[in-house]
Design goal:
Strand order of the largest sheet: 1-2-4-3-5-6-9-10
Structural class: alpha+beta
Radius of gyration: 36 Å
Strand content: 15-25%
Largest sheet: 8 strands, mixed
Shape: globular
Helix content: 40-55%
Number of helices: 23
Length: 973
């Protein structure tokens, strides 16, 4: 009963997992990116490389449009060079959006300042799945960098460095090429867009792990860091980069800017886009004038982001007197410009600028009200200086002012208004406070807000009497709202339960009319998979008011602060709050996540919150879905262990059914054991350190339960195919190997039918001449045929047994009748019945043993077949890479699947040669080893998936050695 309940629970976990996939596919947010259109036909001119013969699949191109192609054909480049590197499966043509907007911008300024875009064709290789192609791509890109800068060598003051723009894995290639000998001085800036720089999304082979480890070690030893260390994830440590602008090490001069796509990017989630080596990290939802999430593909053509990136590029281009362009060398200037365009932080705003006021052209107004709004539909005839008094009154503690359609960024000041002019109090000098203001999305409304603690400001500047809000003269609509309050009345505290709570909880039933903001402190939001929904219901509102807006601030990781808003305001708005990285252990519960809620002063709202299970499951799938292969193998090994445990040391030799074994494998005990072994393995220095994945126990239960249910469904499908399609597949196989030459064809058919050693040699040859993954795929197909033939033999034996029993029964009856007539002696007739019964019993036992042995073979080989199928799935990226590069080379080099495939194929050839499973000793020891390997899958293989290859190969090797060299048991009679 417990086993059945465990299976039902696993099915429920699988449904949750599939629901999370559905939420991720449907997206939590709508796609708000605008398309980037071409004004003329894009042209890609291939540039020749001397080493092109060594890279027949790759190419270097220069981008241009329309009439400008004649300059490119004559190799006349006068713009600052930028090289685009596509990512996993990406095309070199993805540069079109960035390059086209840059070209339009250059034409607009009469080509005085311009950038030249180049792009590399990496044959759309799946570099995000197979790490064997990464070194080759790095080598080709460094050749392209040298070639591009060589094009400018004719100019004495031409560019000596370029910018690398990498999308997806292209960002990691850009980072890797910087450590190539002699390349670092040639790189000015690296812009990585949706790139997993510190950790791969999927580590499907050891080349990936080695590549990332090597590059990260080079950057760590050749780039300066500060000593502050902050653990922000269970999977890796984050470091704050050194703020010094003096290049000390070889990579210090490179400005590394990383950009993440946000919640819509389901391929590379937020935390992976940040790098420990970043000088600046920005998420698209927090970049001024972008304010949205972009999925993994559309981020390269999203017009809002493309415009910001090009503005940054052109801001760091300098032009010499001959009209030639290059990028600024000074890193601090480039960093200031990056902060301006990607963070909205202007360098001069942090300085206390002293401003001289012109009272003759200004209107000075002091309003003692605490909440008021002004709307000037036709603009202002004179500059308006709105004065806010600094006082110790508790009601005048906190100021929030929101202004719409104000183009000036310099609008908040502090001063001592001790002078008089025509009955107006004013101050001739004032100090800028614009470092307290910030821009609010969406872009169309041009909103700014300032928040000031007036008591604290008065304490730090005792001579000041007022805060000034300066609204310049204009003819456009201007609207501002002022909200002065006690501050603590606007603080709402929320403590999330540790796991989950159902229902909606009210925070405030009715907001105060005229209020601009509320602040929500969320305690207990400690894990990246948690999701918190703020529900805002409009009670009454002016139709022209702004929609609600939230600003999420994460105190331990400011890189992931974000805005969220609704384009079309409705009566009910839901905002999802989550953190991309876990709370550091030493800060858990002490520092809440702060949510600034900005609302319209003309509206009244009710505010409530709830935990969002849909978004929570979606984030679990996004962040931990890659752990499923490890848990699938763990469940397989645990089920195999149960099968082996059913073979006791007595005369009953029985290999259990995989269907029943998988039902009995409960995830609770396996996960508990893995937690215990994790601590034990950590103490043993001789062993590799376990993966630092202290995920919630609930997450492991969900992933393991989903893996178990998935395997159960796969088993059902596999058995259906075996029962119904075995003969069909067998015929297809014979047709596939049929050759025009009858003798060769008949020979191959003979090998297939006789099987074991001959087919094993062929598969090993395939592994050497093409790829190990190809040989494994062929082995899966052949293994399936073998199992179907076993099943056919089992059915034949069963049918033969039934027919024989019926024949024996009727034969005995006829014989008894004839014997009684001939002999006429009852005792002699009974003696003949006993002799027939004894003979029949012996024959029945032999038939039963034959059927039972056939069933044991099916159960045993079916589990081994499933392990082989999982091995094929793990090595499938090798297979598609081999297929993609086959036109250049019939064999895949390097081949990460070669060694595991050879081990498995040799073991399979041996197992197919002998009758297995044998009635030998040691099955209990094998069961114990399988349980230990199942634990190893969870402790060592959740992140580094390629390690499962060696776990599966170990199982094949251990089982084969046991079957070949195991001692025969003494069967009790």
């Amino acid at each position: 009963m417990l086993a059945r309940l465990s299976l039902v629970f696993s099915m429920f976990m699988l449904l949750l997992f599939m629901y999370g996939i559905l939420i991720n596919v449907q997206k939590i947010e709508d796609n708000k990116c605008r398309m980037t259109y071409m004004y003329e036909v894009p042209q890609f001119l291939r540039l020749p490389l001397l080493e092109s013969d060594s890279f027949p699949a790759f190419g270097l191109y220069a981008y241009t449009e329309g009439e400008n192609i004649h300059k490119v054909k004559s190799v006349e480049f006068s713009g600052a060079p930028i090289l685009f590197i596509p990512g996993n499966g990406g095309s070199f043509k993805q540069v079109r959006s960035l390059a086209s907007v840059a070209l339009r911008k250059a034409i607009k300024n009469n080509l005085h300042t311009q950038a030249n875009f180049f792009t590399v064709d990496l044959d759309e290789q799946y570099s995000g799945l197979y790490g064997g192609v990464l070194d080759q791509q790095v080598e080709f890109v460094q050749l392209c960098i040298r070639k591009i800068l060589e094009l400018y060598s004719r100019y004495s003051d031409g560019p000596k460095s370029l910018i690398l723009v990498g999308h997806s894995m292209g960002g990691k290639i850009a980072q890797a090429v910087a450590v190539y000998p002699g390349i670092a001085p040639l790189i000015n800036t690296i812009l990585a867009i949706s790139s997993p720089l510190d950790l791969p999304v999927l580590a499907m082979d050891h080349y990936y792990h080695q590549f990332y480890t090597t590059i990260n070690e080079h950057w760590s030893s050749n780039r300066s860091f500060c000593t502050t260390t902050l653990k922000i994830s269970t999977r890796f440590d984050q470091f704050q980069c050194d703020e010094t602008d003096k290049p000390i090490k070889s990579l210090d001069h490179i400005l590394l800017v990383t950009i993440g796509g946000g919640v819509r990017d389901t391929m590379v989630h937020d935390a992976l886009t940040y790098s420990t080596f970043s000088d600046l990290h920005a998420m698209t939802y927090n970049i001024p004038n972008v304010w949205l999430s972009a999925d993994h593909v559309c981020i390269v053509w999203c017009l809002q982001l493309v415009l910001v990136i090009n503005r940054f590029f052109y801001s760091i281009i300098q032009t010499n007197k001959f009209g030639k362009n290059k990028f600024i060398d000074a890193k601090y200037v480039r960093k200031q410009q990056a902060n301006l365009y990607f963070k909205g932080k202007d360098a001069y705003l942090t300085e206390k600028l002293k401003i001289r006021n012109n009272v003759d052209h200004e209107t000075w107004i002091e309003d003692i009200r605490r909440n008021f709004q002004y709307k000037f539909k036709t603009g202002l005839p004179r500059t308006r200086m709105q004065m806010i008094r600094l006082t110790d009154d508790p009601l005048y503690k906190y100021l929030a002012c929101e202004v719409t359609n104000l183009l000036s960024k310099d609008w908040v000041f502090g001063c001592a208004a001790n002078e008089m002019h025509e009955n107006m109090r004013y101050c001739s000098d004032s100090i800028s406070l614009n470092n307290y203001s910030k821009i609010l999305p969406p872009r169309e409304h041009n909103r700014q807000i300032v928040e000031l603690d007036l008591h604290d400001l008065k304490h730090k500047n005792p001579s000041w009497t007022h805060v000034l809000l300066r609204f310049p003269k204009s003819q456009e609509l201007l609207y501002f709202s002022i909200d002065i309050n006690m501050y603590y009345n606007r603080i709402l505290n929320v403590t999330l339960p540790k796991w989950y709570s159902f229902g909606n909880t009210a925070l405030i039933d009715d907001t105060q009319l005229g209020s601009i903001f509320y602040k929500i402190n969320i305690y207990g939001l400690d894990y990246s998979f948690q999701a918190f929904a703020i529900v805002i219901t409009t009670r009454s509102c002016n139709s022209t008011s702004h929609p609600p807006l939230i600003d999420v601030n994460i105190p331990w990781s400011e890189h992931f602060n974000r805005f969220s808003y609704n384009v079309r305001a409705k009566n009910r708005s839901i905002f999802y709050v989550f953190i991309p990285v876990n709370t550091p252990v030493h800060r858990t519960g002490d520092y809440p996540v702060l949510v600034n809620l900005y609302i319209s002063p003309e509206c009244r709202y009710s505010i409530s919150y709830e935990q969002s299970i849909s978004v929570m499951i979606a984030r679990i799938v996004q962040q931990f879905g890659s752990w499923v292969p490890a848990h699938c193998v763990a469940v397989l090994l645990l089920s195999f262990k149960h099968q082996m445990s059913l073979i006791p040391d007595n005369k009953n030799f029985k290999c259990g059914s995989f269907n029943l074994a998988i039902v009995k494998s409960t995830p609770l005990f396996l996960i508990s054991a893995s937690r215990a072994f994790d601590k034990i393995f950590s103490l043993l220095k001789i062993l590799p350190q376990p993966e630092n994945c202290d995920a919630s126990f609930i997450i492991l239960i969900i992933i393991n339960g989903a893996a178990k249910a998935f395997l159960y469904m796969v088993t059902a499908v596999a058995w259906t195919c075996i029962v119904s399609c075995g003969n069909l597949v067998h015929r297809i196989l014979l047709r596939l190997i049929a050759c025009p030459l009858p003798q060769v064809s008949s020979t191959l058919v003979f090998f297939i039918q006789k099987f074991p050693l001959a087919i094993g040699i062929i598969l090993i040859s395939v592994a050497f001449t093409s790829s190990g993954s190809v040989a494994l795929s062929c082995a899966c197909f052949i293994y399936f045929i073998k199992i179907t033939k076993m099943y056919e033999e089992y059915l034949e034996n069963c049918v033969h047994k039934i027919a024989q029993n019926a024949a024996n029964y009727f034969g005995r009856e006829v014989q008894n009748i004839c014997s009684r007539k001939d002999i006429g002696n009852k005792d002699q007739s009974n003696r003949l019945d006993d002799e027939n019964a004894t003979t029949s019993s012996a024959n029945n036992q032999k038939e039963y043993d034959s059927i039972h042995h056939c069933l044991n073979c099916i159960h045993f080989h079916f589990t081994m077949f499933l392990l082989l199928v999982v091995a094929c799935m793990i090595n499938f990226p090798n297979f598609i890479t081999w297929a993609k590069t086959y036109r250049f080379s019939p064999s895949l080099k390097p081949d990460a699947s070669l060694i595991p495939s050879l081990i498995q194929l040799i073991c399979l050839s041996t197992l197919w040669q002998i009758t297995s499973p044998k009635n030998i000793k040691g099955y209990k020891h094998i069961a114990g080893i399988l349980y230990l390997l199942a634990v190893v899958c969870i402790v060592y293989c959740q992140v580094l998936i390629y390690r499962l290859n060696f776990v599966i190969s170990s199982v094949f090797l251990i089982v084969t050695v046991h079957q070949v060299f195991g001692q025969k048991r003494n069967v009790e009679n």
